[in-house]
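TICKET: design request
STATUS: open
ATTACHED STRUCTURE:
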């Protein structure tokens, strides 16, 4: 059911989204280990992850995106006035990659091709969804268009009308690194960031059957991305800081309503803080006291 908040714009102008993926073990086995047909899909993924850990000196066992399937896509629909309309995940509770991919691209087209908003989506989220369209034979001519000037084509790196990658904004299109990523940016604004679930846990959680937990994690990341999106609109002069505060409050109202049927959003609210500029007082967030100060006062 769609929950609304007062003053919400009817037109969906932005789709702020995040995805979670798992490695396709059958594809890994066929491409990486064709001489070992006895490997099960799970064994092929485990073998590849072990090799990746060795190759990166223990830094990462993440299987490249070309082997990944989307098992969760969370989308925050946002109006032309930047107000949050709703957040939903695709094909819940079945989480079928083919259905998710079809719903994603069909939704983008049916809403009139709104701007896609991601965090580091140019590197991962969109390549995964593009390859899913390739795999499942999903036509998306408007997205893959090569007509007109190159800078105006949807997949052009600098076309921020078709796709706005927030990491590109904050790193000057990769000129600088952003250590900490979405988690850091969300926490700078007092938003939850990573809680009990983290990205490197998704493959293991999925294999253990905790599909809903993965989907809830994806939804929380989409919400964090929305709040980071709002702050970038302040940076670019599209929003005043006061207006951003109003939109954050309205989004919190939506989350409170949705949390009545989704416990994961209740946990999100428990870590939710309201940002304010540091001025005469030291505490930058409005609604949670500093634990250190509380302990000191008690002592």
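STATUS: resolved
RESOLUTION: sequence designed for all positions
ATTACHED SEQUENCE:
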């Amino acid at each position: 059911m769609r929950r609304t908040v007062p003053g919400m714009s009817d037109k969906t102008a932005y789709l702020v989204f995040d995805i979670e993926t798992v490695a396709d073990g059958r594809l890994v086995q066929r491409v990486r280990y064709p001489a070992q047909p006895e490997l099960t899909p799970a064994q092929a993924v485990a073998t590849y992850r072990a090799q990746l850990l060795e190759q990166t000196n223990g830094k990462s066992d993440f299987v490249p995106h070309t082997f990944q399937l989307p098992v969760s896509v969370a989308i925050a629909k946002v109006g032309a006035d930047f107000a949050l309309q709703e957040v939903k995940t695709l094909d819940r509770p079945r989480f079928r990659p083919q259905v998710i991919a079809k719903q994603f691209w069909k939704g983008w087209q049916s809403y009139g091709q709104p701007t896609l908003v991601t965090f580091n989506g140019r590197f991962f989220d969109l390549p995964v969804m593009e390859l899913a369209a390739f795999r499942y034979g999903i036509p998306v001519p408007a997205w893959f268009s090569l007509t007109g000037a190159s800078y105006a084509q949807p997949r052009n790196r600098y076309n921020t009308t078709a796709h706005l990658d927030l990491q590109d904004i904050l790193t000057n299109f990769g000129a600088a690194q952003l250590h900490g990523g979405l988690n850091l940016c969300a926490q700078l604004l007092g938003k939850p960031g990573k809680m009990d679930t983290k990205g490197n846990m998704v493959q293991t959680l999925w294999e253990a059957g905790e599909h809903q937990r993965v989907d809830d994690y994806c939804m929380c990341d989409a919400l964090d991305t929305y709040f980071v999106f709002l702050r970038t609109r302040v940076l670019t002069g599209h929003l005043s800081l006061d207006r951003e505060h109003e939109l954050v409050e309205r989004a919190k109202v939506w989350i409170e309503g949705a949390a009545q049927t989704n416990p994961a959003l209740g946990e999100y609210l428990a870590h939710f803080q309201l940002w304010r500029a540091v001025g005469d007082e030291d505490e930058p967030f409005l609604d949670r006291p500093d634990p250190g100060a509380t302990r000191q006062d008690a002592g």
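CLOSING REMARK: The chain is about 45% helix and 10% strand. The chain has a mean pLDDT of 91.
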